[in-house]
Design a protein that fits this description.
single chain, alpha+beta, Glutaredoxin, de novo design (two linked rop proteins), six-stranded mixed beta sheet, two-stranded antiparallel ribbon, 12 helices, 8% strand
Length: 381
Amino acid sequence: MSQREVRQAVGKTLRVLLLGLVVGIAMWPGAAIGSDPVVHAVLFWSRTCPHCHYVIEEVLPPIHQRYGSQFRLKMLENGQPGSAEAYRSAVQLFNVPPERQGVPALIIGNQMLVGSREIPEQLPGLIERYLAAGGVSYPPLAGLDQAGVEVCGTQPCSPVATETPAPTPADPAPEPAAVVAPTSDPVANTLAGSVLVGLAAVLIYAPVTVARAAPRASELKPSPTQRPRPVGDAARHARWSWLVPVLGLVGLGVASYLAYTKLAHSDVICGPVGDCDAVQLSPYSELLGIPVALLGGLAYLGILFLWVTQRMLPEGMASVARWTLFALAMVGAAFSFYLTFLEPFVIGAVCVWCLTSAVCMALILLLSSGELRRWRAAPGR
């Protein structure tokens, strides 16, 4: 074989090998993945956490629909095997301070988002940033491979954690305090119980005292010897009556704030007692799809309107406004009793703002019943 023929044979062989190499690279699974970056994230959540349900049911579905399989989320539920170990590893890895240790908590790249405000506000932007950078893998958390449910788009892409072998005795079983459902608040429950007792007493007292206030026959026409009522009593009653609009404005402010946080999906400033966010995120915070706080605000507006109306209209129409105000306060107090009962016994959390509104409504009912009683008992009415 001549030297020229040898060179031609070697050239053909090299071309065949090069073509095979190109085809192999094109068919290699890693090549397809590399052209389609994927962002991986981890979500710690609890079944008894209203914030978690809001994130899972309201925040994540549109994100899954938008990014599909490019956003892979591993969900670790409180109490499932391996979730406690993974959470402790995350706390150490990100140096999470005690005040930020809780659920829902989502880890994406080098960021850890905590709460129902941070996750919806920052997660979409972080996904875009990491996709532009070529994707990001799961964080190096202990036991993450054997824990949780991995979701690709809207479909699970790995078996649930309960199908893996049970952890050995050496694996720590108890969950960290950060991902356990919050314990009952004795102070908040005591406050709720006190408000319940007060509401029950007012709801019984108000209609009874109004019903028994009908004037006696001897009082329909005052006798010449009847002593007139002291002027100071009338002045004192008038001063007490001015508390109705004051309480109405306080209740309106509370209801407006709660309605805003509900519609804006923002956290409620609650203070050291109770868990207002848990109440706000519960299904009982809405009635037929309308926020209860919004209905409460309308009730307080009605009370303020009726209180002004009964002082501006003639006596005949003023009496209608007086009775309507009393009826509206009765309905508001009864509904406040129902909601206050739900908080410690059904929802498992107490909202101090809600208790404040309930107290305002109870006092308005008490004051309106007193004014209605005096009006009904007035001689010559």
